[in-house]
Design brief:
This protein is an alpha/beta fold and 1439 residues long. It is elongated and about 165 Å long.
């Protein structure tokens, strides 16, 4: 039959009968030998389908059911197994057993009544409709299981599996089992069917039983033994496979694997499946809240899940899932625990930060203390159930508060103890820090500026090292050093103020000479406060320069008192004391939305622009500025402004500003003359009050059709306009490029800029107090000045409030810091104008606005206060009455400190020597009644004071003339001795107008470049020293240094007065400072002509002058009457009033040459010049300033631009000395450019607007001392850094572009073909010395990047070249060739900047020739890192 099956080509089918010990409990024991488990595992190997319990004790009904079917054998079903030769074989499994009746416990009766050993050996089995068996639960519930019948109702048996239980069975003897097996085998052997002995339950097997079973099998011929375990699923398949191999004669002998080896393989398979399943669970299950049904459903299709469930079953898979979920929960709890523990120190710090509060408390008391804190519930939560990790609080997503019971855990207790230790350590560290700081403060070795490395050995001990880190000490020491340095600087500043007499005697200017700086150091050198800054020499020098700046140019901003400046406080007091009247406020509000604009221009320019602006307006001349609508009224003027029809101001039109237009030299001359005439008309008002200056804007416009002049003519007009803008103190508007028709030249943006500026100026005028009709007509009978020291212990409020509270008291008609009082002077009440000034403001008004008397206050306990008083009184004429007032701190008469007593005594002695009045007042006692006697003295000496002033200032009636206080009469404080200019509206404007038509065109040899526009200085801040500086200048001698630094066409905003003082250009021309020097200097009293028409100029001086009284005598100064005043006067004649430059030498030469002045000696020390041979000194000075000379200057050597006053090893040395092959760029240039590109690329006018000179010198000095200087930390301004960088190149012995290369560059530039020109220039560039080439490339690349931001900083490549070519090339301006080639030099540098990528990166030049904007991309080198790789050699061949 079997052979037939093979021949049919179908899979072979084998019927296997499993036999073994069966019967009652007495025969087989309490459990069977494992036949059912063996069959179950083979037929249904899945772990979920395997059942360990299979009973043989059945009821009658179960025995008669279709599964048992009244037979003593079970049909387990059919399985398919793969074979080697064919696809598979099919095996029917039958188990021969013996069922016991559960009633009689005897075998059930069946059709076969044979004993088990004979029945089990049957080879033919038959049972109609017998169903396949699954498990015991199937009996009686057959319908709930799969119903599969035994095929054909009968089954021939092909082989037998003889089961031997080798475990220690209960109530069963193994020897008897073996005897039964031996009998059974004998019966089986008779059938001639293959038999395989199967040792079952080997997982619980006894070694002896296994040996005996093997011995039994050895005794039989060809009997194979397989060791199995159905429970562990070991060798079950092998047992049936061995039998199949025996049945198939074509197969070889099966390989029997020992049980333990097979068990190891099975265990490895299960372990691998478990690992894969655990990985799957970890990937699928992310939360401990997951449920098994949902998870198993998601994993069911995964092979990892299927393999493990097959081997181990669903229950074990579920158990592993539960373990994983529990692990996730533990991890979640641990995360929450760590979060709570991390938050616990913060909670303890917030609730119990004080060690004294909890240091000695028990844990229970400490917990009660925590619960009593107001913020306890902010940090903690008290749970009803504990522990916290067993409650729902674990899963509360918002439960960020710490469970309070966490403190009771070991980790919580440990953190609480750590908190206590931290508080104790902090207390100890705080004690150590205090002790260290006390040690610093008490140590004499710690001085300002001393490095930590030098001080540490003197102040450290072991305790400090034990408790604090080095960084803590360094930080404490650094802060202490800062306090020391700040205190030392404050003390040094006070020392400078105490030596005020020295600084005023030296008559310092913006650039003090080395000799004067040496005098300052010599005088102050022995002072301890000077020595305290010995290690901070750069800072000390900066303070000295800053103080010199203040002395030379005193303002509220430069005042050392800063917020305590008297002038600033007086402004506030007057503003609060005298509020603006309501009616005037209503008028100002009504006029606030209206702008009246005068448009001044010749030949139709004014009318055309007015039409253009009206076209831009909305309905009814409405113009929008910053989102607000204003009514715009235009008044175009094109004729003589002296005629009423062309006047700036009419009864119905009050102008707020004027826009001046020009397109030629003639139209520019018309603008200058018209502005001067208008100012003269405003100054000559009969009401006695000068009209406020009218805001101006000057604009260059093109002629119709696009302009008929070349680029040189346009540049000349720009330069002339900039110079005139500087003279007029007005804004110069950017002109448009040539070729643009009129009407687009002044665009809408520029018009909006002008109108916005006028609007701001209008608001400022409205904010200033104006006198009423009665006030304008009221005149003061006495003009007095009260002088106070800024920063005194007694504040200005305590001194001035009692005066301002006097009745009546109102603002002075002339405005400013003055009030009009009515005081009892003798038997009558008189009107007294009292100016409230600081000392530094008083120095500037002694000549320009003289007083009939001075009330000088000083603080008794401050030496600087009395020193400044002495400096002020030294140059006051001795006919002017003075009232000294000492302000004491205490209420008593006798001060309690030595300094106050000395100061009071000295003040009283000074008063006695100069015959002045003296009063010592406690705080708050400075009422008007104190000064009654002084008022009387001033009234008595009024005539003498006025006569003395008229003698010294012939031609000026400073006290009575209605024009004395006008802008035309008051002198202007010049920015520096090289920058002194005439006041607005003075004669030089007329001369400028006359010069314009006589100047050469752009095609001539050279045209004078313009000066820098300047902001107008205050009209009443003149200093008599300015007259001495101005009068000493050469009349009109040609000097290369007279030429201004080249300017671009970018409109610069008017700069502040302080900035202009130090706006010293640092471009080098023949080693000189390029400055603008006014040729016609105004006399010291400021009266330099009234600017009348040209036909009346000859007699203007006679009309304005007024002869001094014949009997007037020159007044002496108080310094001549008091030995305590002018104690440093010895330094004045020795040094003169000059500075480092040639101006001082020229003045000294003029004085020595017999100019009628013998220096400052004796009683005449206060006057700059005296009259000679009865000539009016003022007239003589004016005539001499108008005198011209044709003498040419001698050729001068070419020194460095601004040689540093210190001996520098870095600045002014050859370039090769500060570079190396590894670092081809000087460190200073690197730092400057990096700083500028980081902070200043958007700065408007970068490189055009000069920085503060003292700041630039301080930067160079500090860098010279420390090459690692951090510019950002020192907070230098961008303009100062830019100026210092330009100064570096100016001080090089040889310019960056070598002289030998300059001629070659000029020759290459002459090539007409553009491409050939660029190639030739690049070839010349590559022949530069290596160090020059590297630095030049670095700088040009930087300038290219700056020009890319020209829309913001207004610096195009053309503008940058104008500013930089003198610095980089430094041509010899003493020759005419160099002067005529300036335009070529500038164009060459512009080409290098604009075409930077072509010259340095071998890119082709753009097709469009030289546009004013930057190149599309700056391909130059970026700022280098500290270790910079040099570029290729300069002489590398071109493309």
């Amino acid at each position: 039959m079997m052979m037939a099956r093979k021949q049919d080509g179908r899979a072979p089918t084998y019927n296997v009968s499993v036999v073994g010990l069966s019967g009652t409990e007495k025969e087989k024991g309490q459990c069977g030998v494992g036949k059912s488990c063996l069959c179950n595992r083979f037929v249904r190997p899945g772990a979920d389908d395997f059942h360990l319990e299979h009973t043989s004790v059945l009821s009658t009904s179960d025995f008669g059911g279709r599964v048992v079917n009244n037979d003593h054998f079970l049909y387990w079903g059919e399985v398919a197994r793969p074979l080697e030769e064919c696809a598979e074989c099919r095996i029917h499994v039958v188990e021969q057993t013996e069922f016991i009746d559960d009633q009689t416990f005897q075998p059930h009766r069946s059709t076969a009544l044979q004993p088990y050993v004979k029945r089990a050996a049957a080879t033919k089995l038959a049972s109609a409709e017998k169903l396949m068996y699954f498990c015991t639960d199937q009996l009686g519930l057959e319908q709930d299981f799969e119903q599969k019948q035994m095929p054909d109702g009968k089954l021939p048996v092909d082989g037998f599996l003889l089961c031997v239980d080798v475990s220690r069975g209960m109530n069963r003897n193994f020897d008897e089992q073996l005897k039964f097996v031996s009998n059974l085998y004998n019966q089986l052997a008779k059938t001639k069917k293959p038999v395989v002995v199967v040792l079952t339950k080997c997982d619980e097997g006894v070694e002896r039983y296994i040996r005996d079973a093997h011995a039994f099998a050895l005794g039989k011929k060809n009997l194979q033994v397989v060791e199995t375990s159905a429970r562990s699923n070991v060798n079950v398949e092998l047992a049936f496979g061995t039998l199949v191999q025996l049945l198939d004669k074509s197969r070889g002998k099966a390989k029997i694997v020992p049980y333990f080896e097979a068990l190891k393989q099975q265990s490895q398979q299960i372990a691998a499946a478990k690992d894969r399943y655990e990985w799957l669970v970890g990937r699928v299950v992310k939360s401990h809240h997951e449920a098994w049904p949902d998870v198993s459903r998601r994993m069911r299709s995964a092979p990892e899940y299927q393999d493990y469930v097959y081997l181990e079953g669903t229950q074990k898979a579920k158990k592993l899932f539960a373990q994983h979920a529990q692990r996730l929960k533990r991890e979640h709890v641990e995360r929450r625990r760590r979060a709570y523990l991390a938050l616990l120190p913060q909670a303890l710090d917030a609730l119990v930060p004080d060690l004294d509060e909890i240091d000695r408390l028990s844990r229970a008391k400490a917990e009660k203390l925590l619960e009593a804190k107001p913020d306890f519930l902010k940090w903690f939560v008290v749970l009803e159930e504990t522990p916290w990790d067993a409650t729902d609080h674990v899963d509360d997503a918002d439960g960020e508060r710490i469970p309070f019971d966490l403190l009771e855990t070991p980790a919580g207790e440990q953190l609480y103890e750590a908190h206590l230790e931290k508080l104790r350590a902090e207390r100890k560290r705080a004690e150590m820090r205090r002790a260290f700081l006390d040690n610093l403060e008490s140590s004499p070795f710690v001085t300002p500026g001393k490095p930590w490395e030098e001080a540490r050995s003197f102040i450290m001990n072991e305790d400090f090292y034990l408790w604090l880190d080095e960084s803590v000490y360094v930080d404490i020491y650094g802060k202490h050093q800062k306090r020391l340095i700040d205190k030392a600087k404050e003390d040094f500043q006070e020392l400078l103020l105490e030596y005020s007499e020295l600084f005023y005697e030296l008559e310092l200017d913006a650039k003090p000479s080395k000799e004067k700086m040496g005098v300052i150091q010599e005088v102050l050198g022995e002072e301890q406060r000077f020595k305290a800054l010995q290690k901070l020499q750069a800072e000390r020098d900066a303070l000295v320069l800053k103080h010199i700046h203040f002395v030379y140019h005193p303002t509220k901003e430069t005042c050392p008192g800063c917020a305590a400046c008297v002038d600033a406080r007086v402004e506030q007091l007057l503003a609060s004391r005298f509020a603006r009247p309501a009616e005037r406020q209503r008028r100002a509000d009504a006029d606030a939305d209206r702008i009246n604009l005068v448009i001044l221009g010749k030949d139709g320019l004014a009318r055309e622009l007015a039409n253009e602006i009206r076209a831009l307006c909305a309905d009814d001349d409405k113009y929008v500025i910053e989102g607000k609508v204003y009514e715009l009224a235009l008044r175009p003027i094109e004729g003589n402004v002296r005629l009423p029809v062309n006047a700036f101001q009419t009864p119905t039109f009050q102008p707020h500003g004027c826009l001046c237009l020009y397109n030629s030299k003639e139209s520019l001359s018309y603008v200058v003359e018209s502005v001067e005439k208008s100012r003269e008309s405003g100054a000559g008002r009969r009401d006695g009050h000068a009209a406020p200056p009218l805001p101006l804007a000057l604009a260059l416009v093109n002629k119709r059709g696009g302009g008929d002049g070349g680029g040189e003519t346009l540049q000349s007009l720009i330069q002339q306009g900039q110079r005139i803008a500087g003279k007029l103190r007005c804004v110069f508007l950017d002109p448009a490029s040539a070729g643009v028709g009129y009407g687009r030249t002044v665009n809408e943006k520029q018009i909006g800029q002008v109108l916005k500026g006028l609007l701001d100026a209008k608001r400022n005028l409205n904010a200033a107090p104006a006198p009423g009709p009665r006030e304008a007509s009221d005149g003061a009978e006495l003009r007095l000045a009260a002088c106070l020291m800024c920063g005194d212990p007694v504040s200005a409020d305590e001194v001035l409030l009692p005066i301002l509270q006097a009745q009546p008291c109102r603002p002075a008609p002339g405005g400013g810091a003055a009030v009009l009082l009515e005081a009892a002077v003798g038997a009558q009440r008189r009107r007294v104008e009292l100016s409230l000034l600081s000392y530094h403001a008083s120095f500037g008004t002694r000549k320009s606005r003289p007083a009939h008397g001075y009330i000088v206050f000083y603080a008794a306990r401050r030496r600087a206060s009395l020193a400044t008083l002495r400096a002020f009184l030294a140059d006051v004429p001795d006919v002017v009455p003075v009232q000294l007032v000492a302000l004491a701190d205490g209420a008593g008469d006798a001060p309690d400190d030595e300094v106050s007593r000395e100061q009071l005594a000295e003040g009283e002695e000074i008063a006695q020597e100069i015959e002045a009045r003296f009063a010592a007042l406690p705080r708050g006692r400075a009422g008007l009644d104190v000064f009654q006697a002084f008022f009387k003295d001033a009234l008595e000496k009024k005539s003498a004071v006025e006569a003395a002033h008229l003698y010294d200032n012939a031609g000026d009636d400073a006290f009575g003339s209605p024009r004395a206080a006008s802008p035309l009469c008051n002198s202007n404080a010049a920015d520096s001795e090289e920058d002194a200019e005439a006041p607005p509206g003075a004669g030089p404007f007329r001369e400028e107008s006359a010069k314009l038509c006589a100047e050469p065109d752009a095609g001539d040899a050279f045209a004078r470049p313009p000066g820098k526009p300047k902001a107008p200085p205050p009209f009443e801040a003149a200093d008599p020293r300015d007259a001495r500086r101005r009068s000493a200048a050469a009349p009109d001698a040609f000097d290369p240094s007279d030429y201004a630094e080249p300017m671009d066409a970018v409109a610069a905003k008017p700069r502040g007065e302080e900035e202009n003082i130090y706006s010293v250009p640092h471009d080098s021309t023949q080693g000189k400072i390029i400055t603008v020097r006014n040729i016609n200097k105004a006399p010291s009293n400021g009266g330099s002509g009234n600017g009348s028409d040209s036909e009346a100029d000859g007699g203007s001086l006679e009309r304005r002058g007024r002869a001094a009284p014949a009997n007037a005598a020159a007044a002496r100064l108080y310094r001549a009457r008091c030995a305590r005043l002018g104690r440093f006067a010895a330094y004045r004649p020795g040094l003169g009033v000059g500075s480092d430059d040639e101006a001082g030498a020229a003045r000294k030469k003029d004085e020595d040459g017999g100019g009628g002045h013998g220096g400052y000696k004796g009683d005449n020390a206060g006057a700059a010049y005296e009259a000679a041979d009865g000539e009016d000194p003022r007239r003589r000075n004016i005539l001499r300033s108008l005198r011209r000379t044709t003498k040419k200057p001698k050729a001068k050597a070419r020194p460095s631009l601004s040689k540093a006053p210190w001996e520098s090893s870095y600045f002014g040395v050859p370039l090769a000395s500060v570079v190396s092959p590894e670092r081809p760029i000087p460190v200073f240039i690197e730092r400057c450019i990096q700083y500028i590109e980081a902070t200043g690329l958007s700065t408007e006018g970068i490189y055009r607007v000069s920085g503060n000179k003292s700041e630039m010198e301080s930067l160079q000095r500090q860098f010279d001392q420390d090459h690692g200087l951090d510019l950002a930390e020192k907070d230098f301004t961008v303009n100062a850094v830019a100026g210092a960088m330009k100064s570096f190149f100016s001080e090089l012995p040889e310019p960056l572009v070598p002289y030998a290369m300059q001629l070659e560059l000029v020759e290459a530039h002459k090539i007409s073909d553009r491409e050939q020109k660029l190639l030739a220039l690049r070839e010349v560039l590559r022949r530069f010395p290596r160090e020059n080439y590297e630095v030049f490339k670095y700088v040009i690349a930087h300038l290219n990047r700056v020009s890319q931001q020209h829309r913001v900083n207004l610096m195009t490549s053309e503008n940058l070249s104008i500013c930089f070519w003198p610095t980089l090339m430094r041509p010899d301006f003493s020759t005419m060739d160099a002067l005529t080639a300036t335009r070529t030099y500038q164009t060459i540098i512009e080409l290098f900047i604009h075409q930077c990528p072509f010259f340095f990166s071998l890119r082709p030049p753009p097709d469009t020739p030289g546009s004013p904007g930057p190149a599309p991309a700056a391909a130059g080198p970026a700022p280098p890192s500290p270790a910079r790789t040099p570029s290729p050699p300069p002489d590398a061949p071109g493309p």
